[in-house]
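Suppose you are handed a protein chain with no further information: no name, no annotation, nothing but its sequence. What can you learn? This example shows the usual starting point.
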Amino acid sequence: MRDSRLDQLAYNLVNYSVRVQPGENILINAKGDTPDLVQALVREIYKAGGSPYVQLIDPAVSREIAMNCNEEQLTIMAQHEVELMEKMQGYIGIRAANNINEMADVPSDKLSIYSRLYELPVMNVRVPKTKWVVLRYPNPSMAQLANMSTAAFEDFYFQVCNLDYAKMDKAMDSLVDLMNRTDKVRLVGPETDLIFSIKDIPAVKCAGLRNIPDGEVYTAPVKDSVNGVITHNAPTPYHGFTFENVRLTFKDGKIVEATANDTERLNQILDTDEGARFIGEFAIGVNPYIRNPMKDILFDEKIDGSFHFTPGQCYDEAYNGNKSSVHWDMVSIQRPDWGGGEIWFDDVLIRKDGRFVIPELECLNPENLKG
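A reasonable first move is to predict its three-dimensional structure. Written in structure tokens, the prediction is:
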């Protein structure tokens, strides 16, 4: 018996997120075991008049490739993927790994060239040139990360992913407008006091068109404007290893000191290239149903009352000139149960302890986004 919630999700992805039009080519890239959703997506793409293309990828096989990869091999792989991507008008990426730490034992030098020579060239075509959306798929591994039963997690998942994103989209307009008028941002919290400028860098709302689940408004700091200290209280996975208590010190935009539960590994990633020690994104999370981290960035970066700060590559839509093969969303939660915190725009307090406190932004508080 088919799950009607899955059919609804597939319909939303095809008709709202990617907005498939007749004659368009749509690539479904599925990592892990996702047959039910892939089949539902194929049906919906055909109904919309598009042509579905499917890639089924086993994360354990990807690990084996990465373990001993070489530059010539990765260049050929990237050329093949780029050629395919250039023929697509849309992209739906599904992630359903049974083990988020699958890449944890891949040597750092291999991970670096795998990211730089294979993943980045493909992303540089997919992101600016296709209508794309990326999502996770509910499985026992994700339920375990969320400390929930599989059945309870599935209920949570569909509640989050089938949210009324059109309503959220409208509510975000006021925050976008305010960010576009803001120069100086200050972030304050436990072991955090950071100042930077977002002047003249566009704010972009994310309400179901690029990520499912969704719920953030992002921009980027002026590249050399970041000064101070930030300590992230949410766990932050990167290439199969989960970092805890990441503390970054900035001077004129650059990370000059970085510590965590594995300081050496953290700094190896930040030394991947010149841009990895500068910030490519600042975003505010507002999804009312996502409350706590589950070591999955597509969920964690949308946590109600959170923000994230991203070493590495910026987005073209909020361009600050920073380029890197790294794009690492690091999350901080500012609700009272996580230590509290404040966000200031041009010396005006706009959010305190995870709740918006000025009238024009109250529409983004959780009780106003649910339902």
